[in-house]
Amino acid sequence: MIPGYMTIKEACEKWELSNRWVNTMCHNGKIPGAVKFGDMWAIPADMEKPTQDKRIKSGEYKDWRKKYGKSKQKQKS
């Protein structure tokens, strides 16, 4: 590998993330400085673990149908 860079496998071990997740972050540009050489990604070795996407984990959308008065059941005539 290129000096100063690490592979996806090394990044997975360092950051304790899955191979697929690190590959997806590289592909989507979420890891600054990541460069693709052929079929391999080169990630800067001094890179810190990237933050997760801004996914809602609070359960805010849980039971949204009840909140807005929508129901899965059809109303009987």
Helix content: 25-40%
The first-level CATH class of the domain at 1-46 is given as Mainly Alpha
The overall average pLDDT, rounded, is 82
Rg over alpha carbons: 20 Å
Looking at the structure, what is the overall shape?
elongated
Discrete helix count: 3
Largest sheet: 3 strands, antiparallel
CATH level 3 topology of the domain at 1-46: Arc Repressor Mutant, subunit A
SSE layout:
Elements: E1 5-6, H1 8-15, H2 19-27, E2 35-37, E3 40-44, H3 64-67
Summarize the structure.
The chain has helices at residues 8-15, 19-27, 64-67, and strands at residues 5-6, 35-37, 40-44.
Jot down its keywords.
77 residues, alpha+beta, Arc Repressor Mutant, subunit A, 3 strands, 13% strand
How would you characterize this protein structure?
Helix content is 27%, strand content 13%. It is α+β, with helices and mostly antiparallel strands. The protein has a domain at 1-46: Winged helix-like DNA-binding domain superfamily/Winged helix DNA-binding domain (Arc Repressor Mutant, subunit A), CATH 1.10.10. It has a 3-stranded antiparallel beta sheet. It is elongated, with a radius of gyration of 20 Å.
